[in-house]
Amino acid sequence: MTRRILVVSHFSRPAAVHAAESVTAALTEQGIEVIHDVATEDDVELVMVLGGDGTILGAAEFAHDRGVPLLGVNLGHVGFLAEAEPEALPDVVRRAVDRDYHVEERMTLEVSVVAPDGSVNQGWALNEAAMEKGEQGRMVEITIGVDGSALSSFGCDGLILATPTGSTAYAFSGGGPIVWPDVEAMLMVPLAAHALFARPMVVGPASTLEVELLAAPAADAVLWCDGRRRFEVPAGSRLIVRRGSQPVRLARLNRTPFSGRLVAKFDLPVTGWRGRRA
After folding, report:
1. Which residues, 6+ apart, have CB-to-CB distance to 153 below 8 Å?
2. 53 is known as an active-site residue
3. pTM surpassing 0.85?
4. Which of 6, 188, 204, 268 meets the CB 3.0–4.6 Å disulfide criterion with 44?
5. Are strands 109-114 and 238-243 parallel, antiparallel or unpaired?
6. All domains of the chain, ordered by start, with CATH?
7. What average pLDDT values come out for the chain (278 residues) when binned by 10 residues?
8. Binding-site residues, please?
């Protein structure tokens, strides 16, 4: 049976184009068929992504639906979802050929937007579902609840509902905590809230998070799932977020502790740790 690997890259960046050409040639030489078009191929064993977190999140749409492992090589900035840097590309190819990687499952969110007319739009997210005000200069007025019970009401610029994977992304910028990826939890992080009780919260994976966008004063909002999939949220809508039933599978080449990844990606100072010198 022919082995197939999907290679996804940011084709507007010369470095990504060059990397894709190099990877394609190396895999083909090893007898592996390389696919570049996600719309024409389902039967692949691995999705290799050459780009930043945005490119990886785009490829995750394909990988999530099919349960295929995703292996990222960082050609962007921080590249928190990536497993390797560009200089390691030859080793990445070798290990993909040898299937020398382990697979880590990351929880996702299932998102439902229930409009005032009863219609429902559904989506999912690996990092976060971010509800933001639809008009500049106007806050959204919301009520939040957990497990069917109301918790608080306030005005804000928006609200981020995130996974542990997303805790180092938009939720982190919004003041949320970093949550280790092996912790199964969901985060709720208000953005510029006008309230005393509007701090970030962390709830268990069996909980249900709800957000009601109040109809008065009328102010519509928009919902972005991983910054890619957009949903309209009319005033009076209800947002329901649960743990997703289908995780995203990440191919990992090493077992570096998450703390080590934080230090490397954020360039954190660790001088003095067990006598370490700068």
Report:
1. 141, 142, 143, 144, 195, 214
2. yes
3. yes
4. 6
5. antiparallel
6. 4-106+248-275 (3.40.50.10330), 109-243 (2.60.200.30)
7. 91 85 95 85 89 92 94 84 91 97 97 97 98 84 96 95 97 96 96 90 98 83 96 96 97 92 91 78
8. 53-54, 127-128, 138, 157, 168-173, 192
